[in-house]
Amino acid sequence: MKSLLEQLPSIVAEGKKEAERVIERAESSYRLGLQTRELVIPSKDSNWQDLFRKTAQSNKSTPAENYNALIYGDNLLAMAALLAGDQHRQSLRSSIQTIYLDPPFDSKADYRTKIQLKSGDIEQRPTVIEQAAYSDTWKAGTASYLSMIVPRILIMRELLKDDGSIFVQLDWHVNHYVKIVLDEIFGKENFVNEIVWRRKGGSALGVMGRLSAATDNILWYGKTLDYKFKPVFQDADPEYIEQQFRYKDLDNRRYMITVMRSPSPRPNLMYDYKGYKTPPNGWAIPRTTMERLDAEGRLHFPDSKEKQIYKKIYLDEYPGQMINNLWSDISTLKGSNREILNYDTQKPEALLSRIMELSSEKGDTVADFFVGSGTTAAVAERLGRRWIVSDLGKPACMITRKRLIDQNAKPFLYQHIGDYQVEQMRSTMGAKFRIGDLAEIILGLFGALPLPMEENPNKNMGRLQGSKTLVLADSPNKMTGLATLRRAIEIRDNLMGGWDKVVILGWNFSPTIGHDIEALGQGDRLEVLVIPPDLLDRLKKKGHKLKADEVRFSSLQYLKLGEVSRKQDGEWESLSVAIANYVLLSPEALNLDEINREKLQKIINSDPLALIEYWGVDPDYDGEVFRSVWQDYRGNTDNDSDPYRVTRIARLAGLPKKSGPRRVCVRVVDVFGFEAEATIEVA
């Protein structure tokens, strides 16, 4: 078997081919896009009413480039979409100033999510999408990890500005191999520093047979030699101050001295000054600068003319010591630190602050494509940087969104990767993939036999054997909504002499799907089920070996609203919206063990609203972009003193007055990341 060093050339070569395919697609007519799920307007922002009024005046989609973005999904696909651009956002090629990369690098990491509920914690194992990503990353150890990281770093280089930088944080597992990869992609000449972060406050206990690891390595590369560099200073040690600033002016102003010798001779630096001989290679500054510093009293003249002139550095102007590549002053998060979000790989804000201060300025764009707990976005927001972040894990995206709302961030977009299922299926079944092929596979996994081709040219209809039940598999690149329901009912009643029942299997659903089903009044003659969102990843992993009894099609989660009232007062309006009930997606669809599934079922039976993690209200929904101007979430005690629950009633004041009905949309996200919406017109 080849060693890892022997495999590296082919790993890099394959990664380059994959990146080239992504770049070619970005420049072609078939481009991967981003779908905006929510424009989050933090309700703590006192200016949200103005922003809401401006966005409500236009029926056009929100221009994405005006907002920061949190993207859910595979970061390779997210970066491909950013590289491609679309009608709402220009391509971000050569647009990002700083990229911070903290990819998971421990194959034994526990990626379970602990969901804290008042009635007891539930541990959710990763979704199959996440499991597949993690297991693919480590199926052949470090070689698989490098195969994952190479194309992603290549795409990141395309996104960086010419004076941009990338910082890759790693530990001892893969640091040395990734350094070789970065040398190949960015060029050894563009390596800036290897920063060693000594995790202050870490464990002092060793492990059997070796010393404990107390450091991480951060590899800093510029895209070019013209990378942006902004010196960062820290307070000098008192002993250093005492030793170095030992001189005083006549006015008792303390200073230290620094030499002014040139490292190499140049004609304009070779001159005598006030009887002091020029150094062997000349002075560090030309005569005009020397004269200016002399006039300002900033030169130190030794008593002996045989010595050299020094420059004064005054203590009251001293910015501190410029940091070096050993960062030992930044602590890990521990104890009662206010930053702690109980996210295993969370990094301290001070670490990200320093990285951004070194390599970017206010208004620059920073990115993090393994955002985790959202530290990069939170720090960028605080430092006045633009930001784009993404993560494959829904818990990470949920934590990040809540963190930014808590921070009273400027409005930002929460986006998904468009046509994600189609994109995944193309990578599973190849370029010849057709939507009908996918529908045929889904019908088979549901246990339905396909209808004859003459009745079923799109291969998307089947029947359950031994019954008069018709099954229709909807397309993954469309929303299952009222039009689909009506068409399914028509087919049920007329195709092949009619059927007793029709079952619709859907991927994506319109916000009003639950109410539409209820309004149609079909009873048990119409059923809508959810195709597992991770099905395509499972097909990619297991292919034809995936069996029907391994796939569970779940009922829709459903949100029911309570009382909704609207009052007008002069030029303004107030709105009160209550949520009455929330029905969770079937527990069978969740990746839980039997004990946690039983815990969940008890909560569903006794208090289903306790499972709501987050909800928001758009008081003027345009049917395209959900603009949440009011939010509540577990842990927010401003609206409700209970950290384990959300409030049941949203109260919005200061809305601009509107004649005619308001179309109010409510979106709920449960603790597992599933979403449900309800829309109502309020007179």
Automatic annotation (TrEMBL):
<comment type="similarity">
    <text>Belongs to the N(4)/N(6)-methyltransferase family.</text>
</comment>
<keyword id="KW-0808">Transferase</keyword>
<keyword id="KW-0489">Methyltransferase</keyword>
<dbReference type="GO" id="GO:0009007">
    <property type="term" value="F:site-specific DNA-methyltransferase (adenine-specific) activity"/>
</dbReference>
<dbReference type="GO" id="GO:0032259">
    <property type="term" value="P:methylation"/>
</dbReference>
<dbReference type="GO" id="GO:0003677">
    <property type="term" value="F:DNA binding"/>
</dbReference>
<keyword id="KW-0949">S-adenosyl-L-methionine</keyword>
<dbReference type="GO" id="GO:0008170">
    <property type="term" value="F:N-methyltransferase activity"/>
</dbReference>
<dbReference type="Pfam" id="PF01555">
    <property type="entry name" value="N6_N4_Mtase"/>
</dbReference>
<dbReference type="InterPro" id="IPR002295">
    <property type="entry name" value="N4/N6-MTase_EcoPI_Mod-like"/>
</dbReference>
<feature type="domain" description="DNA methylase N-4/N-6">
    <location>
        <begin position="96"/>
        <end position="399"/>
    </location>
</feature>
<dbReference type="InterPro" id="IPR002941">
    <property type="entry name" value="DNA_methylase_N4/N6"/>
</dbReference>
<dbReference type="InterPro" id="IPR029063">
    <property type="entry name" value="SAM-dependent_MTases_sf"/>
</dbReference>
<protein>
    <recommendedName>
        <fullName>site-specific DNA-methyltransferase (adenine-specific)</fullName>
        <ecNumber>2.1.1.72</ecNumber>
    </recommendedName>
</protein>
